Structures are given as C-alpha cells and as structure tokens.
C-alpha cells in the first residue's frame, strides 16, 4: 500500500479516537488497531502521539478552510458570500463531526503543537468575515456615510459571528433529537447577522441613551 494511503488511514483513525477519547486518554495502540496497522509503523510514519495529533489538527483545519474558500464566489454580493461561507462551514462541520471536535475542543485544550493551528484557523475565519462585513457596509453606504463602520466595529462583529458559528456547530453536532440541516443552521445565524448588518447599512444603531 502506498505510504500516502497508509498515512491517510492512520490520520482518519487518529481523528476518530482523539474525538471520542480526548487527546490524553487516546492510545497509540487503539489508533493503530483502528487503522489496521502495527503500532511501530504508526510511530515510523508519524513519530509520536504529539506529532500525530498535530498532523490531525493541521489536516482538519486545512480541509475546513478549503471548503469555506471554495464556496465563496469573489464576484458575488456580500450577503451571498457570507451566506455561502456560513453554509459551507456548517456543511463541513456536520459531515466531519470528529474533525470538528478535534479542532474546536481538543486542539484548544491541549497546548502545543495543536493550539496555534486552531488559533490560526480562527483568525483566518475572523479576517475573512471582517472583510465581508466591511464590504457589506460599503455596498450600502450612501452619500452621508451612514453605513460606514469603524475598523474595530467590523472586527468585533466578525469575532462575534465566528464565535456564534463555532458554538452553533457544536450545538448541531451534539443534539440528540432532531438535527437541523447545515442550511437551517446557517439560516439561523444569517437571520441574526444580516438583520443587524442591514440596520447598520441604513444608519440604524441601538443606543442606551434613553435607558436608565
């Protein structure tokens, strides 16, 4: 069997075990058995449990980024780009729940070398959404500049939206009852995000001035 195929099998097995057991409780014996390989061969190809975990996180992060990027058409309107990006995100996390569990939970709680990869993924997603939010405001800007957003506003909204998307993906993937589709989950978040952005485009903002 080609090494590339064998390594993919090992990574598939490792993602499943890390998602189910957690990094610390996962054993190389179980990963090797699930992959149909000997433990010495796993060590030969992927060095150590820590290196194997890091390889899993990098692979899952790259796959998620690729799915989201492929779904966004550069020439589409800002709301279409945001919609298709969200839908691709929720589709990917629903189709790869073990990979998402490793990325969203295990990578962030087990330090080096995985945490920086997960943080980089999050920052890339935040950067992408920040640009979409800024483009949305620019598309709706009138002569009075009412739709303009300060840089910190676009960045803050993007962090909030990405955090909400991560939370919703975890919620959708762990439900025991009826499971919403990726389209439904994306629409849930889009209804909140886009209505708010439409208000900002029209110069309408919440204020606490009249409140005690």
UniProtKB/TrEMBL annotation:
Gene3D superfamilies (alphabetical): Tetracycline Repressor, domain 2
Entry keywords, A to Z: DNA-binding, Transcription, Transcription regulation
Keyword Transcription: yes
Record organism: Streptomyces luteoverticillatus (Streptoverticillium luteoverticillatus)
Stretches assigned to the HTH tetR-type domain: 4-64
Residue ranges: DNA binding: 27-46
GO MF term list: DNA-binding transcription factor activity; transcription cis-regulatory region binding
Protein's UniProt name: TetR/AcrR family transcriptional regulator
Pfam family of the protein (one): TetR_N
GO terms classed as biological process: negative regulation of DNA-templated transcription
Keyword set includes Cell division: no
